[in-house]
Every structure is written in C-alpha cells, then in structure tokens.
Design a protein that fits this description.
The protein has helices at about 5-15, 45-55, 80-90, 100-105, 110-115, 150-160, 185-190, 205-215, 225, 230-240, and strands at about 25-30, 40, 60-65, 95, 120-125, 135-145, 165, 170-180, 195-200, 215-220, 245. By secondary structure, the protein is of the alpha/beta class. The radius of gyration is 19 Å and the shape is elongated.
C-alpha cells in the first residue's frame, strides 16, 4: 500500500478541514508514493521516536504531534529537529501528522477520552467549522454523582497518571468536560455549558486560580496522559488495511518522583 492511500484512510476520519488554521497537518516530510508495509504510530514526532521507527523497520510514521509547526528557514544538523529531518530523508520514511483534526474529529481523541472516563450523553464543547459532528472538547454526564476528590482518583487510575486537582474536593461532580492536551482557553466555555469540572492538561498556576475563581473545578491530568490514546485510535483505523502496525514506546517526558 502506498503512503498516500494510508493518508487517505486516516483523513476519512479526520480530514484536514477540521484542523485549526495555525496547525501543520498532513504529509510533512517524504514521498507520498512510497510503498508501505509497516507503519509506526506515535504520539510524538521527535528524534527519539524517529530513531525508534528506523530501528523497528518502519516504512512510514504516523504521528499526532507534527514537526515543523513553527516553520524553519534552515535545516541545521546540529539541532535535534535538523537531525530528525536528516534521518527521515536518509531512510526514506514519510511522516504524516493528524493533530487538531484528530483532536476535534468524531471518533478522535476527545471522543475517546470522554468514553474512557465513562461519560454519557456526550456532546461537543466547541464547534470551529461547519461540520457539526466535530469540534474541540467534549462534555457529558457521569452515571453517578461523585466528589471531586474521588473523581480525581478515578481519572488518575483510568489515565495511569498522577493528576493535579483544583477546587473544593468535596464538590459534587455530575457534568464533566474534557479537552485533551493543552486547552485552558476552553475552560470558561465548559463552565458556561454547565460543567462541574474539566479534565485537561498543561495548566499553569495562575490559570488554575483564575479558572477555579469562575466556579469550575479543574483536573490537570497532563498532556501526554490525555492524548496517548491516539496510538490506539491510529491502530483501530489501520488494523484492517493489510499492513503491519508498530506502536511506539513513546513515554511521557515527565517522570513523577
């Protein structure tokens, strides 16, 4: 199967039109006509995961996080990014990324996150295109009301991480919003739509204060733990395509000491 066919299959789920304008998605390096027998799926695209893909005999990399997001004017082999691009080209490995289009897609990361947390009556938190089946974040109900303290422990167990919770731990949680990765800007909307708590990542100290002052609880479960499920999503999309799929050993950059 050629790389462009694999891209076509993935983009049926998360077309480019669902990505935010600032994003960098699609085939970001390599030959779309490359014959692919083995696909390496990963959350992060960096020098470590590229070396891993090469060591495991991958013909193509499918990543959530893109490369070249901020653009570059030179490829310097003394930088990690330059080394990564050099390795991709030398080893003839196309790299494709589905980023905010996978965050917002129906069946994408935020849908998966909402289902992992056992939410019911799941709805889109914020629409950003004319497609009313897709958008950023999700909001839904718990089957049973629970305290913020217990819900925080539950999130940690489900996402296999240590979470940070802000708000009164005795607050009764019924309506939950989720926004994978780094989405502090969507918290006021989650509050407006009736969320008792939002589960997201990459929260700063003063953000936490400002948001909880609005009357909404916040659980910072981390960027990696709220998005690592993307590898399972990529695998599910491609599992019947007759190609070998290798899931990266991609680890969280943070270690909890």
């Amino acid at each position: 199967m050629k790389a462009n066919k694999i891209i076509e299959i993935i983009e049926k789920i998360c077309p480019k039109k669902l990505a935010y304008p600032w994003d960098n998605v699609g085939l970001l390096c390599g030959d779309s006509e490359k014959k692919v027998d083995t696909v390496f799926v990963t959350l992060d695209a960096n020098i470590t995961t590229v070396k891993e893909a090469i060591s495991k005999g991958a013909d193509m990399i499918v990543s959530h996080h893109p490369i070249l997001l901020n653009g570059i004017k030179r490829i310097d082999y003394n930088t990690a990014e330059g080394q990564m691009i050099k390795l991709l080209i030398e080893n003839d490995i196309p790299l494709f990324a589905a980023h905010t289009n996978m965050d917002t897609a129906h069946g994408g990361i935020n849908d998966r996150l909402a289902k992992l947390l056992n939410l019911t009556n799941i709805k889109i938190l914020e629409y950003h295109t004319e497609d009313n089946t897709a958008g950023l974040g999700r909001i839904g109900k718990l089957k049973n009301k629970i305290s913020l303290e217990k819900f925080s422990h539950m999130c940690g167990e489900i996402l296999n991480t240590t979470v940070r919770a802000a708000g009164d731990l005795n607050t009764v949680i019924n309506t939950v919003a989720v926004a994978s990765g780094s989405c502090s800007e969507i918290i006021p909307l989650a509050k407006e739509k009736g969320a008792d708590v939002i589960v997201t990542g990459d929260m700063k100290y003063h953000n936490m204060i400002d948001m909880t002052d609005l009357g909404i609880c916040v659980i910072d479960a981390g960027h990696y733990p709220t998005e690592i499920c993307v590898m399972d999503i990529f695998e599910d999309i491609l599992k019947n395509c007759g190609i070998k799929i290798i899931k990266s050993e991609n680890k969280d950059i943070f270690k909890f000491i």
